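# nightly structure sweep
# worker-07 picked up a monomer target from the shared queue
# config: single-sequence mode, recycle default, output format = structure tokens
# input follows
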Amino acid sequence: LDGLKGVNDSLGHQAGDELLVAVGGRLRSCVRPGDTAARLVGDEFAVLLEDVGDTTDVVRVAERIVNRLAEPFSVASFTACAAASIGIALGTPGRDKPAELISRADAAMYRAKRSGKGRYALDGA
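# output follows
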């Protein structure tokens, strides 16, 4: 999540916590009922998509998340802005270990951050 530090610094940590809860709600609205959206730590979230057809499906979800999180949030009686830098790693059940997928997604996320906020990058792309 890009922008949490600014909210914490300007509106306080309670407002930052409200923003995190709101982000979680928006993430859940971007995925199917069988998918998982969860906060990992701090301002980092993970989304696990089950039964993905191809990369196009994953990119559509990433774009939906970027667009949905770009909409202003109302926290602590103020309007706050946040964005998501998303790293995408595709895995094969039974072959890829969860820690490896998270590491690859993390590397892709940092590539997305370097190219500007509110973007996504694919692992290995």
